[in-house]
Design goal:
The protein is of the alpha+beta class and about 500 residues long. It folds into two domains: about 1-280, 2-methylcitrate dehydratase PrpD (Orthogonal Bundle), CATH 1.10.4100.10; about 290-425, 60s Ribosomal Protein L30, Chain: A, CATH 3.30.1330. About 45% of the residues lie in helices and about 10% in strands. The chain contains 20 helices and nine strands. The protein has helices at about 20-30, 35-55, 60-70, 90-105, 125-135, 140-160, 170-185, 190-200, 215-235, 250-255, 295-305, 320-325, 345, 350-360, 370-375, 375-385, 390-400, 440-450, 460-470, 490; strands at about 1-5, 75-80, 110-115, 115-120, 265-270, 310-320, 385-390, 410-415, 420-425. It has a four-stranded mixed β-sheet. The chain has a two-stranded antiparallel ribbon with strand order 1-5. Strand 8 and strand 9 (about 420-425) form a beta hairpin. The relative contact order is 0.15. The model has no long low-confidence stretch (mean pLDDT about 95). Pathway: Carbohydrate metabolism; tricarboxylic acid cycle; isocitrate from oxaloacetate: step 1/2; Organic acid metabolism; propanoate degradation. Keywords: Lyase, Tricarboxylic acid cycle. It catalyses: citrate = D-threo-isocitrate; (2S,3S)-2-methylcitrate = 2-methyl-cis-aconitate + H2O.
């Protein structure tokens, strides 16, 4: 890896394009290095993982709304949309949009955490949509996805967005644009312009993940993917981007991030170096924000030791800065204790999540968030006994670069009414590559089977999984096999009101 120091440059400064971060990323995207077998294998895992979550979220209203928007944009050759017959094709940016919402809705796919947060699997919907539309092969798709994962993860390693209240999808627009560039075999200048446009159009505030969290939390990465598709299309037509997008005097670093005196050290693969960043990411066993994964496993482990949960006086979770301030009591969000809060809010409340995991000893992507579950009086009582505090050691481990040190867990201090304390801690989730039960292909397939049950017919599940495991062998024009269809009865709910794009259509 080569480290690139990135800072603001004055407009009058001699700063050639070849030194711009966007150009350095474009060089990585256009480097035709082979994808290593372990990277290709993990890409297949994440294609399966994304489809799992999409299946489980297919009938949720935000996903149905996005799907209806895509349906209003049929296109030939076009791209597939999860749930619909693979013979139906839609404009690639709208297919990327609909599939992006489906993948993200349950907050249940892969993650990478460092200076910033990310769900690098969000690269899959836009890159796959363009691959289907452009008639590319499975090998082409794998190359594009290796780039998308590499660029997003490398940006996440180096550039903190949340510190400046910028949403993390600002790293996704450039990575998806770069991945599409690799997929299509574009030249460096075209990819450079697309990266700049994608970044420029996808910077937004983190209010989408603050307070009363709405369905936009799922839509934000889908929007970034859609913008990446459109940015590449414009760049291919010779249209340019604001430049230099990161380093400009009025650019992203100067005004949206650390300011004109800030420096960021961004690691990128050197010429001929394989793109392996996906191997540093990890998926979720539980449908909740990633910092909740280890606490859920910890709560399940502590249940028997605690015994009668009514004897609990208080629970304090000692954890990292991120966990405390984003999903803990450090956020100062009263909504995180509201039994009538949205699902999006509850899955960003580690207090709620720890309480339910303690009571139930399990976690379910639907039942654990059901209104009747959140409003149970004994749950509300326990929930309000839980708080978080930042522990510098957990914050240090969160930001550690050594994989053996890096951790996203917590220490739970449970104080009983008797004054007795029960203490336990868990550094990493059981499903993490270094955890007690790390995910491999078998676990990814099991997750798909579980989440697809009652949604996708068993024969269609078998067909999709067989195609996914053969991704590298799929020929040009065969990538529609990486979608799945469901019955009209499944898609009938929920009902979605018409919008602008439905003008003239019947409800």
């Amino acid at each position: 890896m080569k480290t690139h120091v990135v800072r603001t440059r004055r407009s009058a400064e001699d700063f050639p394009v070849s030194e711009h971060l966007a150009w350095k990323i474009a060089e990585v995207a256009t480097d035709a290095v082979e994808v290593s077998p372990d990277t290709a294998d993990m890409i297949v895992n994440r294609i399966i993982d994304n489809a799992s979550v999409a299946a489980a979220s297919l009938v949720r209203k935000p996903v149905a709304s996005a799907r209806q928007q895509a349906i209003a944009h049929p296109y030939n050759p076009g791209s597939t949309v999860f749930g619909l017959p693979v013979g139906q094709r839609f404009s690639p940016e709208w297919a990327a949009w609909a599939n992006g919402v489906a993948v993200r809705e349950l907050d249940f796919h892969d993650t990478f955490l460092a200076a910033e947060y990310s769900h690098p699997g969000d690269n899959v919907p836009p890159i796959l949509a363009v691959a289907q539309h452009a008639g590319r092969s499975g090998a082409d798709l794998i190359r594009g996805l290796a780039t998308g994962y590499e660029i997003q993860i490398d940006l996440v390693r180096a550039i903190c967005l949340h510190e400046h209240k910028i949403d993390h999808v600002a790293h996704l627009g450039p990575s998806a644009a770069a991945g599409i560039g690799t997929l299509l075999g574009l030249d460096a200048d075209t990819v450079y312009q697309a990266i700049g446009q994608a970044l420029h159009t996808t910077t937004a505030t983190r209010q989408s993940r603050k307070g009363a969290i709405s369905s936009w939390k799922a839509y934000a990465p889908a929007f970034a993917g859609k913008m990446a598709v459109e940015a590449v299309d414009r760049a291919m037509r010779g249209e340019g981007a604001p430049s230099p997008i990161w380093e400009g005097e009025d650019g992203v670093i100067s005004w949206l991030l650390g300011g004109p005196n800030a420096e960021y050290s961004v690691p990128l693969p050197g010429p001929g170096e394989a793109k392996r960043a996906i191997l540093d990411s990890y998926t979720k066993e539980h449908s909740a924000e990633y910092q909740s994964q280890a606490p859920i496993d910890l709560a399940r482990r502590m249940r028997d030791r605690i015994g009668d949960l009514e004897q609990i006086a208080s629970i304090v979770l000692h954890t990292s800065h991120h966990t405390h301030y984003v999903i803990g009591t450090g956020s100062n969000d009263p909504q995180k204790f509201d039994p009538h809060a949205s699902r999006e809010t509850l899955d960003h409340s580690v207090m709620y999540i720890f309480a339910v995991a303690l009571q139930d000893g399990t976690w379910h992507h639907q039942h654990s968030y059901a209104p009747e579950r959140a409003q149970r009086p004994d749950t509300v009582e326990l929930w309000n006994k839980i708080s978080t505090v930042e522990d510098p050691e957990w914050t240090r481990r969160y930001h550690a670069t050594d994989p053996a040190e890096k951790a996203f867990g917590a220490k739970a201090v449970v104080t009983l009414r008797s004054g007795e304390t029960i203490v336990d801690e868990l550094a990493i989730a059981d499903a993490h590559p270094l955890g007690a039960r790390p995910f491999g292909r078998e676990q990814y397939i099991a997750k798909f089977r579980t989440l697809a049950e009652g949604v996708i017919e068993p024969a269609e599940q078998d067909r999709f999984l067989a195609a996914a495991e053969r991704t590298a062998e799929l020929r040009a024009g065969e990538l529609d096999q990486l979608s799945f269809s469901v019955s009209d009865a499944v898609l009938a709910a929920p009902s979605v009101p018409n919008g602008i794009f439905d003008a003239g259509r019947t409800a």
